Amino acid sequence: MAILNVTPDSFSDGGKFFPAGLGGADGGAEAMVREGADMLDVGGQSTRPGATRLTPEEELARVMPVVRALRQSPVLRCVPISVDTFYAQVARETVAAGANIVNDVSGGALDPDMRHTVAELGVPYVLMHMRGDPGTMSRPEHTSY
After folding, report:
1. What pLDDT digit, counting tens, does each position of 4-35 carry?
2. Which one of 75, 92, 94, 108 has the minimum C-beta count within 10 Å?
3. Rounded to two decimals, what is the model's pTM?
4. DSSP assignment letter at 81
5. DSSP per-residue string spanning 24-73
6. Nearest residue to 81 (alpha-carbon basis) of 92, 71, 90
7. What is the pLDDT of residues 94-122, one digit of tens each?
8. How far apart are CA 111 and CA 132, in angstroms?
9. For residue 26, what are the CA distances in angstroms to 9, 29, 76, 78?
């Protein structure tokens, strides 16, 4: 799986694909697939410690152009797309646009509609765990086990 973050502060690529410029993200994804990636994970929400949470609308503005471009590319049309989100609305709209998997770093804890939405969509759900949210995960109450 290759990570395609469309955030200005991506931990994995330093914001290489931000803004979600068409040509940059889909061209980068094509290179990733040529190099052996058999799945693409698209994320528009920074989950680094201290990150400011985007609204679903802001996240959609980042990821939807990328999901659409990936689905229009002859090279990427059949490559599975995972969307990295903790918002049910983003999951619903990106799956409708062609994403195949929902990857939720909050395990459904940050949006009470997420698990029900994913069940309705009938797509695989990668359910992860974090303590707090990106804005609070470094606080002492979340780092003491």
Report:
1. 888 876 555 544 554 544 445 667 888 889 99
2. 75
3. 0.84
4. E
5. THHHHHHHHHHTT---EEEE-S--STTPPPPPHHHHHHHHHHHHHHHHH-
6. 71
7. 999 999 999 998 999 999 999 999 999 99
8. 13
9. 19, 5, 8, 14
